[in-house]
Amino acid sequence: MAHLELKNLNKTYSSKVIPVKDISLTVDDNEFLTLLGPSGCGKSTTLRMIAGLEEPTRGKIILGNEDITFKKPGDRNMAMVFQSYALYPHMSVYENLASGLRLKKIPRTEIQKRVAEVAQILGLEELFQRKPGQLSGGQRQRVAVGRALVRNAQVYLLDEPLSNLDALLRERVRADLKQIFAGQKAPVVYVTHDQTEAMTLSTKVAVLNNGYIQQLDTPARIYNSPANLFVAGFVGSPQMNLLTLPCKNKSAMLGDFPISLPDIPTVPPQIILGIRPENVCIAQPGDTQTFTGRVFLVENLGMHNLVSVKVAGASQSQPLTIRALLPTDQNWNDQQITLTLQPQSIHWFDVASGDAVFCNQAVGVSS
User: Fold this and answer.
1) Which of 138, 305, 336, 363 registers the highest number of CB atoms within 10 A of its CB?
2) pLDDT tens-digit map of 248-272
3) SS3 of 210-252
4) Is the pTM of this model over 0.70?
């Protein structure tokens, strides 16, 4: 059983830049954790500290029951897949797969056995004699993953392994990775800025920003119950609508249209309403949370149109913009339409802190 734990992990550089601040999390066997966030949020630095390529300024890294915080990378029994593949150009596919095992003085028969097993999983048997320069991007990436798998490591680390692939190939290799690591029992830590990779591959996701974990949870809860404004705005495509609205009585005013607030003791002067475009629909008889606006932009996404609507109101100097995913079988251009917000899909956020309010959404937040 492998159990990876980070305890209050910090990294500070001499320039006083702090890319990682008090990161604490655990990854168990059969778990696939993705560190997700924008460039500079601290995800790759965290991965490099786990691998031993950088030393933390403060905090601990525990593997099993052993403190490995300052162990050398070669003594950690971890396997890493890099963004650049890092294959030896002068070696064949077979030699690249076997190179790490040979350095560890593994017996030849054991090397042959492990390489054959991994090659079968990844479909590399017919490529054994080729050099990396003779392979496609997807094939090179599978060789890089295979070189990690033959290690039988306690932990697998992947640093944006799909970022060099084109969109179609990335989709295929992503599906391959999901199947490959579903059969591995060891913990997997994966770094990406691509939310699609995080949502499709992971059993849990840590969303990072400015060195802090903003939310640590399952992909479903990250998407359906964002802990704060950053998570709400970063995860989801098209992006969640986030509107700062004035409050009146027990409603938030979307233009001149009241949107009911949950039952709360004190109504704030303003609140931020969040709702995803797929949860904004054409109003039907009997709908409650409705409003009217004029379409000013239609973007065809294939299965749906992303429709941008301006909503005017006496209490606001400029119209608000809200986007909805609507059917493609109608012409929405410059139409006056009445929309409804699905009540169960509305999110509320505090204006000052940005935290989710009125619900049990704030799971795994670091402040």
Assistant:
1) 305
2) 988 999 999 999 998 878 889 999 9
3) CCEEEEEECHHHHHHCCCEHHHHHHCCCCCCEEEEEEEECCEE
4) yes
For 22, left (φ over 0), alpha (ψ -120 to 50), or beta? Answer: left
Same structural domain, 164 and 313: no
Alpha-carbon span 244 to 57, nearest angstrom: 39
Q: Residue 287 belongs to a domain with what CATH number?
A: 2.40.50.140
Query: Do 265 and 325 have their domain in common?
Result: yes
Q: Are residues 218 and 310 in the same domain?
A: no
DSSP states along 178-212: HHHHHT--S-EEEEES-HHHHHHH-SEEEEEETTE
Q: Are residues 211 and 297 in the same domain?
A: no
Mean pLDDT check: name the lowest of 130-134, 139-143, 224-228, 313-317. 313-317
Cα→Cα distances 192→147, 162, 183, 342, Å: 20, 9, 21, 31
Structural domain boundaries, residue 273: 241-349
